[in-house]
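Posting this for the archive.
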Amino acid sequence: MLTVQALSDTGMSLSVVKKLVALSRPQQQIQLNDYRKHLLSTIHQSQQQLYCVDFLIRQLQERNDD
């Protein structure tokens, strides 16, 4: 059984949580799988941004070392 608190902890808005709770169990699973894919995509995008920042920091450090 899905709880409002557990769904809210995922970062979903209250309106999305209310819609999800009203769905059938198979539809909830589909929606949660889609949301998981979205979260994972966001993580990957943030990871790429972090790699770019790290690269820039290394570039600056190398210039300071010269």
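The CA atoms of residues 40 and 46 lie 10 Å apart. Residues 25-65 form the longest helix (41 residues).
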